[in-house]
Amino acid sequence: MLKILGKTSSINVRKVLWTCEEAGLAYSQEDYGSGFASTQTDAFRAMNPNAMVPVLLDDDFILWESNSICRYLARKAGRDDLLPGEPRACANVEHWMDWQATDFNSAWRYVFPALVRKNPDYNDQNAIAAGIREWNHCVGILDQQLQRTGAWAAGETFTLADIVLGLSVNRWKMTPFEHPDFPAVEAWFERLNLRPAFLRYGNNGTP
């Protein structure tokens, strides 16, 4: 059985758990990270030298980096609907996943610890304001894409792109600042709320 190491409050662990649920894969999960089992041990670093979660164990195969794990799980389950086999369709899903992991994630690097975690080291109001502008800009890009597709992030069907972006938008919505109106994103978020796995691991009260 697949084993996922990482605490369920982690946004990156939750995207992996959500993918398992959507793919119909059996798995177990063990809490690692701050407040739980340490990732700073030699044993954990032997699995992931970055000492970060999540880590996937599939028998003797070890994988880290959450988006890579999601891709592996979709392939393992034979779920071409989540990650198509056709090269162009696959690339269309993956470029939204990569954008989420780079531009979108970078936008909240200062804002989230400042406004949600209340970290006193993140108290530069100019940096907070700049981060909010960039975060809203990224959500605006997604809104434009959803206006074009009229459905899901990468096109007419639900894919891994919606999983990774769904968690990012949930975090955006739960961070306390004034949010612009993005109707296509709101409609898409309501569609996500119809999926039981999103309610369990996405819109579950955890940013």
Automatic annotation (TrEMBL):
InterPro entries per UniProt: Glutathione-S-Trfase_C-like (IPR010987), Glutathione-S-Trfase_C_sf (IPR036282), Glutathione_S-Trfase (IPR040079), Glutathione_S-Trfase_N (IPR004045), GST_C (IPR004046), Thioredoxin-like_sf (IPR036249)
Q: What is this protein called?
A: Glutathione S-transferase
Organism lineage reads as: Bacteria, Pseudomonadati, Pseudomonadota, Gammaproteobacteria, Enterobacterales
Q: Which residues form the GST C-terminal domain?
A: 86-207
- The lineage's top-level taxon is Bacteria
- Tell me which PROSITE patterns the record gives: GST_CTER, GST_NTER
Matching Gene3D superfamilies: 1.20.1050.10, Glutaredoxin
Q: Which family does it belong to?
A: Belongs to the GST superfamily.
Q: Which SUPFAM superfamilies match?
A: GST C-terminal domain-like, Thioredoxin-like
- Show where the GST N-terminal domain sits: 1-81
Which Pfam families does the annotation name?
GST_C, GST_N
